[in-house]
Design a protein that fits this description.
This protein is an alpha+beta fold and 295 residues long. It has 3 domains: 8-67 and 210-234, Pseudouridine synthase, CATH 3.30.2350; 69-209, Pseudouridine synthase (2-Layer Sandwich); 240-292, Archaeosine Trna-guanine Transglycosylase, Chain: A, domain 4. It contains 8 helices and 18 strands. A hairpin with a 2-residue loop joins β17 and β18 (286-292). It is elongated, with a radius of gyration of 22 Å. Belongs to the pseudouridine synthase TruB family. Type 1 subfamily. It catalyses: uridine(55) in tRNA = pseudouridine(55) in tRNA. The active site is at 43 (nucleophile). Keywords: Isomerase, tRNA processing. It holds the Pfam family TruB_C_2.
Length: 295
């Protein structure tokens, strides 16, 4: 007899070289269901935290996408590429050997806060119904509009001669905590432009998506041997403020009704037995359902 699918999240430590879609396909087989989605892709080159939803927990992912993310990255100054990372073709070179570490650090400090960022051209953003990355690969020129993002924190760990052409390039190790929708490749591109030498990303590892970190993550190889899902109730408690309902309130939630709850933000509400029922938000003096997960 087939075991029922457990709704919840799977936090994967993605390896380099595999696409996010490839990870989803593997988890679909392990979970025994096609109802698997992810909360934001990682490029094939990138590694680290990829949060997947299984069964009705896929509906939770759209709300997780709004949370902040964290990355470790290495920027190479002195070389620009058409993808803003090491997988692209070199488009320009200019020696970065003359740059002082203090100059690089000061330039990166300018990225912290609320900024307008032009996404990298090889993003999944649609232009006239087509993915930007597909247009670039087809040889088309792509111009994307700047959009607001927030860099909460940017820590510079090291500035050193580059592993490639050490006399002409600099490698810069950084950690970034930012809003969803921020492109770390674009930071590398824009840093290189600001310093007049070009820049691209040589390594990227996502260390957190909201409350889910590398400590929660398992590699695909580990999941092959021990497939486990973080139950949807535990996932909701980790990501949102929690509100414990009484039996009458829980029944109202099952009907999708508004409630006179005192909440300040998007909140996960739970039945007396601990079942996760819904996400509610404060609006017009009452709590209104954003998504109901029962049934």
């Amino acid at each position: 007899m087939t075991q029922p699918v457990t709704p919840g999240l799977v936090v994967v430590d993605k390896a380099g070289g595999i696409t996010s879609h490839g990870v989803v396909a593997r988890v679909r087989r392990l979970a025994g269901t096609r109802k698997v989605g992810h909360a934001g892709t990682l490029d094939p080159m990138a590694t680290g935290v990829l949060v997947l939803g299984v069964d009705r927990a896929t509906r939770l992912l759209g709300h997780l996408i709004l949370t902040e993310k964290a990355y470790d990255a290495t920027i190479r100054l002195g070389i620009a590429t058409n993808t803003d990372d090491a997988e692209g073709e070199v488009t320009a070179r200019a020696s970065a050997g003359h740059l002082e570490e203090a100059t690089v650090r000061a330039a990166l400090a300018e990225f912290v806060g609320d900024i307008e960022q032009v996404p990298t051209a090889v993003s999944a953003i649609k232009v006239d119904g087509k993915r930007a990355y597909a247009m670039v690969r087809a040889g088309e020129d792509v111009e994307l509009k700047a959009r607001p993002v927030t860099i909460h924190e940017l820590v510079v760990h090291d500035v050193r001669p580059g592993e490639l052409e050490p006399d002409a390039t600099l490698d810069v190790d950084i950690s970034v905590r930012c809003s969803s929708g921020t492109y770390i490749r674009a930071i590398a591109r824009d840093l290189g432009a600001a310093l007049g030498v070009g820049g691209h990303l040589t390594a990227l590892r996502r260390t957190a998506v909201g409350p889910y970190t590398l400590e929660h993550a398992k590699t695909l190889e580990q999941l092959d041997g021990d497939f486990a899902v973080l139950p949807i109730a535990d996932a909701a408690r980790a990501a949102f403020p929690a509100y414990e309902l009484d039996a009458e309130q829980a029944q109202e939630v099952r009907y999708g009704r508004r409630l006179p709850l005192e909440i300040d933000a998007l909140t996960a509400v739970f039945a007396p037995d601990g079942e996760f029922l819904a996400l509610y938000e404060p609006r017009d003096g009452v709590a209104r359902p954003v998504a109901v997960f029962t049934g």
